[in-house]
Amino acid sequence: MINLYLAVNDLGYGIHGRGLLQGLYQYNKDYNITPIGGKIQGALQENEVPIIQNGVANQEKWDRNSPSIYIFHEFMANQFTGTPMIAFPVFETDRFGKVAENYLRQMDHILVTSKWGKDVIEENKIEVPCTVIPEGVDPNIFYPEPMTQNKEFTFCTVGKWEVRKSTQEMLVAFAEEFEGSSERVTFHAHVINPFMGAQFMNQAADFMAKLGFTKVDAKEKEMVLTGERGNLRIEIPLSRVPDRKMIAKIYRSAHCGVFPSKAEGWGLPQLECLSCGTPIIVTKCTGQTEYLENYDERLMLIDLNKEIAADGVWFDGTRGSWYSISMDELKAKMRWAFENRDQLRSIGTGMSQYVRNNFSWNNAGKKLNDFLESLKSQNATSN
User: Fold this and answer.
1) For the chain, give me the number of helices (H) and strands (E)?
2) How far apart are CA 146 and CA 60, in angstroms?
3) What is the pTM of this model?
4) At the N or C end, where does the chain have fewer CB atoms within 10 A?
5) Which domain holds residue 73?
Protein backbone atom coordinates (compact mmCIF):
# COMPACT_ATOMS: atom_id res chain seq x y z
CA MET A 1 0.00 0.00 0.00
CA ILE A 2 1.22 3.50 -0.89
CA ASN A 3 0.10 6.47 1.19
CA LEU A 4 -0.35 9.52 -1.04
CA TYR A 5 -0.72 13.00 0.42
CA LEU A 6 -1.76 15.40 -2.34
CA ALA A 7 -3.94 18.39 -3.08
CA VAL A 8 -7.02 17.53 -5.12
CA ASN A 9 -7.92 20.93 -6.58
CA ASP A 10 -7.42 23.11 -9.67
CA LEU A 11 -4.26 24.90 -8.48
CA GLY A 12 -0.69 24.04 -9.46
CA TYR A 13 0.00 21.30 -6.94
CA GLY A 14 -3.51 19.95 -7.49
CA ILE A 15 -2.96 19.52 -11.23
CA HIS A 16 0.47 18.00 -10.58
CA GLY A 17 -0.80 15.48 -8.03
CA ARG A 18 -3.87 14.53 -10.04
CA GLY A 19 -1.85 14.07 -13.22
CA LEU A 20 0.76 11.94 -11.51
CA LEU A 21 -1.96 9.82 -9.94
CA GLN A 22 -3.60 9.41 -13.34
CA GLY A 23 -0.34 7.99 -14.66
CA LEU A 24 0.34 5.79 -11.64
CA TYR A 25 -3.16 4.28 -11.89
CA GLN A 26 -2.16 2.57 -15.14
CA TYR A 27 0.47 0.53 -13.27
CA ASN A 28 -0.50 0.42 -9.62
CA LYS A 29 -3.89 0.69 -7.91
CA ASP A 30 -2.64 -0.17 -4.43
CA TYR A 31 -2.70 3.35 -2.98
CA ASN A 32 -4.76 5.49 -0.64
CA ILE A 33 -5.26 9.27 -0.74
CA THR A 34 -5.13 11.78 2.09
CA PRO A 35 -6.28 15.05 0.48
CA ILE A 36 -4.23 18.03 1.64
CA GLY A 37 -6.68 20.54 3.05
CA GLY A 38 -8.93 17.73 4.19
CA LYS A 39 -11.26 17.50 1.21
CA ILE A 40 -11.50 16.99 -2.52
CA GLN A 41 -11.99 20.25 -4.40
CA GLY A 42 -12.07 21.37 -8.01
CA ALA A 43 -13.64 20.00 -11.16
CA LEU A 44 -12.56 16.43 -11.86
CA GLN A 45 -12.36 15.19 -15.43
CA GLU A 46 -14.56 12.17 -16.11
CA ASN A 47 -11.59 9.79 -16.34
CA GLU A 48 -10.29 11.00 -12.95
CA VAL A 49 -13.36 10.00 -10.95
CA PRO A 50 -12.57 6.25 -10.56
CA ILE A 51 -8.92 7.08 -9.88
CA ILE A 52 -9.78 9.38 -6.98
CA GLN A 53 -12.53 7.05 -5.74
CA ASN A 54 -10.05 4.18 -5.61
CA GLY A 55 -7.73 6.21 -3.38
CA VAL A 56 -10.52 7.35 -1.08
CA ALA A 57 -11.90 3.80 -0.76
CA ASN A 58 -8.45 2.64 0.33
CA GLN A 59 -8.13 5.20 3.15
CA GLU A 60 -8.99 2.50 5.69
CA LYS A 61 -5.85 0.68 4.53
CA TRP A 62 -3.52 3.56 5.43
CA ASP A 63 -0.45 2.15 7.16
CA ARG A 64 2.29 4.20 8.81
CA ASN A 65 4.75 1.45 7.89
CA SER A 66 4.04 1.87 4.17
CA PRO A 67 5.82 4.26 1.78
CA SER A 68 4.31 7.74 1.98
CA ILE A 69 4.67 10.41 -0.71
CA TYR A 70 3.92 14.03 0.14
CA ILE A 71 3.30 16.02 -3.07
CA PHE A 72 3.29 19.57 -1.75
CA HIS A 73 5.41 22.48 -0.55
CA GLU A 74 8.75 21.61 1.03
CA PHE A 75 8.13 24.07 3.90
CA MET A 76 5.11 22.00 4.97
CA ALA A 77 6.76 18.59 4.74
CA ASN A 78 6.42 17.93 8.47
CA GLN A 79 2.73 17.16 8.01
CA PHE A 80 2.88 13.50 7.09
CA THR A 81 4.39 10.23 8.20
CA GLY A 82 5.30 6.89 6.66
CA THR A 83 8.08 4.37 6.10
CA PRO A 84 9.90 5.55 4.12
CA MET A 85 8.95 9.25 4.08
CA ILE A 86 9.19 10.66 0.54
CA ALA A 87 8.82 14.38 -0.16
CA PHE A 88 7.91 15.57 -3.66
CA PRO A 89 8.17 19.38 -3.67
CA VAL A 90 8.14 21.56 -6.79
CA PHE A 91 10.36 24.52 -5.89
CA GLU A 92 11.28 27.43 -8.17
CA THR A 93 14.46 28.89 -6.70
CA ASP A 94 17.89 27.59 -5.74
CA ARG A 95 17.77 27.89 -1.95
CA PHE A 96 15.39 26.85 0.81
CA GLY A 97 14.37 28.60 3.99
CA LYS A 98 15.82 27.11 7.17
CA VAL A 99 12.54 25.41 8.12
CA ALA A 100 12.11 23.74 4.72
CA GLU A 101 15.75 22.70 4.62
CA ASN A 102 15.39 21.08 8.05
CA TYR A 103 12.34 19.11 6.91
CA LEU A 104 14.00 17.94 3.68
CA ARG A 105 17.09 16.71 5.54
CA GLN A 106 14.87 14.36 7.56
CA MET A 107 13.24 12.70 4.57
CA ASP A 108 14.19 9.18 3.51
CA HIS A 109 13.94 10.16 -0.14
CA ILE A 110 13.19 13.26 -2.20
CA LEU A 111 11.53 13.33 -5.61
CA VAL A 112 12.01 16.30 -7.94
CA THR A 113 10.70 17.11 -11.41
CA SER A 114 13.99 17.93 -13.15
CA LYS A 115 17.74 17.51 -13.23
CA TRP A 116 17.93 21.17 -12.27
CA GLY A 117 15.90 20.39 -9.14
CA LYS A 118 18.22 17.50 -8.26
CA ASP A 119 21.23 19.80 -8.67
CA VAL A 120 19.63 22.28 -6.26
CA ILE A 121 19.16 19.53 -3.64
CA GLU A 122 22.81 18.52 -4.01
CA GLU A 123 24.14 22.10 -4.06
CA ASN A 124 22.36 22.76 -0.77
CA LYS A 125 24.14 19.71 0.66
CA ILE A 126 20.89 17.94 1.52
CA GLU A 127 22.30 14.44 1.70
CA VAL A 128 19.13 12.50 0.98
CA PRO A 129 18.66 10.17 -2.04
CA CYS A 130 17.01 12.14 -4.83
CA THR A 131 15.20 10.88 -7.95
CA VAL A 132 13.83 12.80 -10.95
CA ILE A 133 10.16 12.14 -11.80
CA PRO A 134 9.07 14.68 -14.46
CA GLU A 135 5.59 16.11 -14.74
CA GLY A 136 3.56 15.54 -17.90
CA VAL A 137 0.49 16.24 -19.99
CA ASP A 138 -2.58 14.28 -20.97
CA PRO A 139 -2.11 13.87 -24.75
CA ASN A 140 -5.82 13.12 -25.10
CA ILE A 141 -6.54 16.69 -24.01
CA PHE A 142 -3.45 18.65 -25.04
CA TYR A 143 -3.01 17.85 -28.72
CA PRO A 144 -2.68 19.97 -31.87
CA GLU A 145 -5.76 20.74 -33.91
CA PRO A 146 -5.10 22.50 -37.23
CA MET A 147 -7.19 25.48 -38.32
CA THR A 148 -8.36 26.39 -34.81
CA GLN A 149 -6.21 29.50 -34.40
CA ASN A 150 -7.79 32.93 -34.23
CA LYS A 151 -7.81 34.87 -37.52
CA GLU A 152 -5.82 37.76 -36.04
CA PHE A 153 -2.37 36.99 -34.67
CA THR A 154 -2.78 36.01 -31.03
CA PHE A 155 -0.31 35.65 -28.18
CA CYS A 156 -1.43 33.80 -25.07
CA THR A 157 -0.22 33.03 -21.59
CA VAL A 158 -1.62 30.94 -18.74
CA GLY A 159 -0.47 31.34 -15.15
CA LYS A 160 -0.88 33.77 -12.25
CA TRP A 161 -0.60 37.56 -12.14
CA GLU A 162 2.61 37.77 -10.12
CA VAL A 163 6.17 39.04 -10.17
CA ARG A 164 7.71 35.60 -10.70
CA LYS A 165 5.74 35.08 -13.91
CA SER A 166 6.79 38.51 -15.32
CA THR A 167 3.13 39.16 -16.09
CA GLN A 168 3.39 42.92 -16.31
CA GLU A 169 6.58 42.76 -18.36
CA MET A 170 4.97 40.65 -21.08
CA LEU A 171 2.02 43.03 -21.41
CA VAL A 172 4.34 46.05 -21.56
CA ALA A 173 6.44 44.32 -24.23
CA PHE A 174 3.30 43.60 -26.25
CA ALA A 175 2.03 47.18 -25.99
CA GLU A 176 5.38 48.74 -26.89
CA GLU A 177 6.49 46.38 -29.67
CA PHE A 178 3.21 46.45 -31.59
CA GLU A 179 2.38 50.12 -31.09
CA GLY A 180 0.76 51.48 -34.26
CA SER A 181 0.38 48.02 -35.83
CA SER A 182 -1.60 48.06 -39.08
CA GLU A 183 -2.71 44.50 -38.33
CA ARG A 184 -4.96 43.36 -35.51
CA VAL A 185 -2.92 41.69 -32.71
CA THR A 186 -4.38 40.16 -29.53
CA PHE A 187 -2.84 39.10 -26.23
CA HIS A 188 -5.03 36.65 -24.28
CA ALA A 189 -3.70 36.50 -20.72
CA HIS A 190 -5.34 33.88 -18.51
CA VAL A 191 -3.56 35.15 -15.40
CA ILE A 192 -6.17 35.32 -12.65
CA ASN A 193 -4.54 35.04 -9.23
CA PRO A 194 -6.99 33.32 -6.84
CA PHE A 195 -5.00 34.53 -3.83
CA MET A 196 -5.63 38.20 -4.69
CA GLY A 197 -9.44 38.18 -4.60
CA ALA A 198 -11.09 41.37 -5.92
CA GLN A 199 -7.69 43.08 -5.88
CA PHE A 200 -6.78 41.12 -9.00
CA MET A 201 -9.45 42.72 -11.19
CA ASN A 202 -8.65 46.20 -9.91
CA GLN A 203 -4.91 45.81 -10.39
CA ALA A 204 -5.29 44.33 -13.88
CA ALA A 205 -7.72 47.09 -14.95
CA ASP A 206 -5.47 49.83 -13.56
CA PHE A 207 -2.42 48.39 -15.26
CA MET A 208 -4.21 48.09 -18.59
CA ALA A 209 -5.32 51.73 -18.29
CA LYS A 210 -1.73 52.83 -17.58
CA LEU A 211 -0.71 51.17 -20.85
CA GLY A 212 -3.28 53.33 -22.62
CA PHE A 213 -5.84 50.61 -23.30
CA THR A 214 -9.49 51.59 -23.20
CA LYS A 215 -11.82 49.15 -21.49
CA VAL A 216 -14.48 47.73 -23.80
CA ASP A 217 -17.56 45.77 -22.80
CA ALA A 218 -17.69 43.38 -25.74
CA LYS A 219 -17.07 40.34 -23.54
CA GLU A 220 -18.36 41.62 -20.21
CA LYS A 221 -20.95 38.86 -19.94
CA GLU A 222 -18.16 36.32 -20.33
CA MET A 223 -16.26 37.88 -17.42
CA VAL A 224 -13.31 38.93 -19.56
CA LEU A 225 -11.55 42.23 -18.89
CA THR A 226 -10.91 43.57 -22.39
CA GLY A 227 -8.92 46.60 -23.44
CA GLU A 228 -8.13 48.06 -26.86
CA ARG A 229 -5.58 50.54 -28.15
CA GLY A 230 -5.64 51.00 -31.91
CA ASN A 231 -5.31 47.53 -33.42
CA LEU A 232 -4.05 46.02 -30.17
CA ARG A 233 -6.30 44.06 -27.85
CA ILE A 234 -5.67 42.58 -24.39
CA GLU A 235 -8.07 40.02 -22.93
CA ILE A 236 -7.84 38.98 -19.27
CA PRO A 237 -10.46 36.47 -18.01
CA LEU A 238 -11.73 37.29 -14.54
CA SER A 239 -12.66 33.74 -13.56
CA ARG A 240 -10.61 30.57 -13.58
CA VAL A 241 -11.18 27.92 -16.22
CA PRO A 242 -11.15 24.61 -14.30
CA ASP A 243 -11.90 22.46 -17.33
CA ARG A 244 -8.59 21.26 -18.78
CA LYS A 245 -10.18 20.93 -22.23
CA MET A 246 -11.01 24.64 -22.17
CA ILE A 247 -7.43 25.46 -21.23
CA ALA A 248 -6.27 23.43 -24.23
CA LYS A 249 -8.56 25.49 -26.47
CA ILE A 250 -6.88 28.66 -25.23
CA TYR A 251 -3.49 27.30 -26.26
CA ARG A 252 -4.73 26.10 -29.64
CA SER A 253 -6.43 29.39 -30.46
CA ALA A 254 -3.12 31.25 -30.17
CA HIS A 255 -0.21 31.47 -32.59
CA CYS A 256 2.42 31.78 -29.85
CA GLY A 257 2.58 31.40 -26.07
CA VAL A 258 4.54 33.88 -23.97
CA PHE A 259 6.14 32.65 -20.72
CA PRO A 260 8.99 34.93 -19.57
CA SER A 261 8.96 33.67 -15.98
CA LYS A 262 11.87 34.38 -13.66
CA ALA A 263 11.85 30.83 -12.27
CA GLU A 264 9.81 27.64 -12.56
CA GLY A 265 9.72 24.40 -10.62
CA TRP A 266 8.48 22.82 -13.85
CA GLY A 267 6.28 25.15 -15.88
CA LEU A 268 3.26 22.97 -16.66
CA PRO A 269 1.39 25.59 -18.77
CA GLN A 270 4.48 25.89 -20.97
CA LEU A 271 4.54 22.13 -21.55
CA GLU A 272 0.78 21.99 -22.18
CA CYS A 273 1.00 24.81 -24.71
CA LEU A 274 3.79 23.02 -26.58
CA SER A 275 1.81 19.78 -26.50
CA CYS A 276 -1.03 21.60 -28.28
CA GLY A 277 1.33 22.53 -31.11
CA THR A 278 1.61 26.17 -30.09
CA PRO A 279 5.25 27.26 -29.75
CA ILE A 280 6.28 29.42 -26.82
CA ILE A 281 8.63 32.27 -26.00
CA VAL A 282 10.26 31.07 -22.79
CA THR A 283 13.12 31.72 -20.39
CA LYS A 284 16.00 29.26 -20.53
CA CYS A 285 16.37 28.64 -16.80
CA THR A 286 15.39 26.49 -13.81
CA GLY A 287 12.99 23.51 -13.95
CA GLN A 288 11.60 24.02 -17.43
CA THR A 289 15.03 23.31 -18.96
CA GLU A 290 14.12 19.63 -18.53
CA TYR A 291 11.99 19.72 -21.69
CA LEU A 292 13.67 22.65 -23.48
CA GLU A 293 16.98 20.92 -24.10
CA ASN A 294 16.54 20.89 -27.88
CA TYR A 295 14.18 23.85 -28.20
CA ASP A 296 14.67 26.47 -30.91
CA GLU A 297 16.77 29.31 -29.46
CA ARG A 298 14.99 31.83 -31.68
CA LEU A 299 12.17 31.61 -29.15
CA MET A 300 14.19 31.29 -25.96
CA LEU A 301 15.06 34.16 -23.65
CA ILE A 302 18.73 33.76 -22.81
CA ASP A 303 19.79 37.31 -21.88
CA LEU A 304 19.00 36.80 -18.20
CA ASN A 305 20.15 38.59 -15.07
CA LYS A 306 20.45 36.55 -11.89
CA GLU A 307 19.04 38.39 -8.87
CA ILE A 308 17.74 37.75 -5.36
CA ALA A 309 14.23 36.28 -5.48
CA ALA A 310 12.03 38.81 -3.72
CA ASP A 311 8.50 40.00 -4.49
CA GLY A 312 7.16 41.09 -1.12
CA VAL A 313 4.52 38.34 -1.19
CA TRP A 314 5.80 34.80 -1.71
CA PHE A 315 9.55 35.38 -1.86
CA ASP A 316 11.26 37.38 0.88
CA GLY A 317 14.86 37.22 -0.31
CA THR A 318 15.84 34.17 1.76
CA ARG A 319 15.14 31.51 -0.86
CA GLY A 320 17.95 32.13 -3.29
CA SER A 321 17.85 33.60 -6.78
CA TRP A 322 15.81 33.84 -9.94
CA TYR A 323 16.33 35.49 -13.33
CA SER A 324 14.99 38.77 -14.67
CA ILE A 325 14.58 39.09 -18.43
CA SER A 326 15.72 41.64 -21.00
CA MET A 327 12.71 43.60 -22.22
CA ASP A 328 14.47 44.27 -25.53
CA GLU A 329 15.01 40.55 -26.05
CA LEU A 330 11.40 39.71 -25.18
CA LYS A 331 10.10 42.29 -27.67
CA ALA A 332 12.48 41.00 -30.35
CA LYS A 333 11.28 37.40 -29.83
CA MET A 334 7.64 38.48 -30.02
CA ARG A 335 8.35 40.38 -33.22
CA TRP A 336 10.14 37.37 -34.74
CA ALA A 337 7.17 35.13 -33.92
CA PHE A 338 4.76 37.64 -35.48
CA GLU A 339 6.78 37.92 -38.71
CA ASN A 340 7.70 34.23 -39.17
CA ARG A 341 4.43 32.35 -38.93
CA ASP A 342 5.35 29.43 -41.18
CA GLN A 343 8.51 28.73 -39.19
CA LEU A 344 6.52 29.19 -35.99
CA ARG A 345 4.03 26.56 -37.11
CA SER A 346 6.84 24.14 -37.98
CA ILE A 347 8.44 24.58 -34.55
CA GLY A 348 5.09 23.95 -32.88
CA THR A 349 4.46 20.76 -34.84
CA GLY A 350 7.83 19.27 -33.95
CA MET A 351 7.63 20.18 -30.25
CA SER A 352 4.11 18.83 -29.93
CA GLN A 353 5.22 15.41 -31.07
CA TYR A 354 8.30 15.51 -28.82
CA VAL A 355 6.30 16.49 -25.73
CA ARG A 356 3.49 13.99 -26.24
CA ASN A 357 5.98 11.18 -26.85
CA ASN A 358 8.25 11.95 -23.90
CA PHE A 359 6.31 13.87 -21.26
CA SER A 360 2.89 12.29 -20.80
CA TRP A 361 1.45 11.63 -17.36
CA ASN A 362 1.55 7.92 -18.22
CA ASN A 363 5.32 8.17 -18.65
CA ALA A 364 5.57 9.99 -15.33
CA GLY A 365 3.38 7.37 -13.65
CA LYS A 366 5.59 4.57 -14.96
CA LYS A 367 8.71 6.27 -13.62
CA LEU A 368 7.03 6.72 -10.24
CA ASN A 369 5.95 3.07 -10.18
CA ASP A 370 9.45 1.94 -11.19
CA PHE A 371 10.83 4.00 -8.31
CA LEU A 372 8.38 2.39 -5.86
CA GLU A 373 9.26 -1.08 -7.16
CA SER A 374 12.95 -0.31 -6.61
CA LEU A 375 12.16 0.58 -2.99
CA LYS A 376 10.48 -2.81 -2.59
CA SER A 377 13.55 -4.55 -3.99
CA GLN A 378 15.89 -2.63 -1.70
CA ASN A 379 13.70 -3.45 1.31
CA ALA A 380 13.58 -7.14 0.39
CA THR A 381 17.36 -7.25 0.02
CA SER A 382 17.99 -5.50 3.33
CA ASN A 383 15.68 -7.98 5.09
Assistant:
1) 11, 16
2) 48
3) 0.95
4) C
5) 2-136+360-382
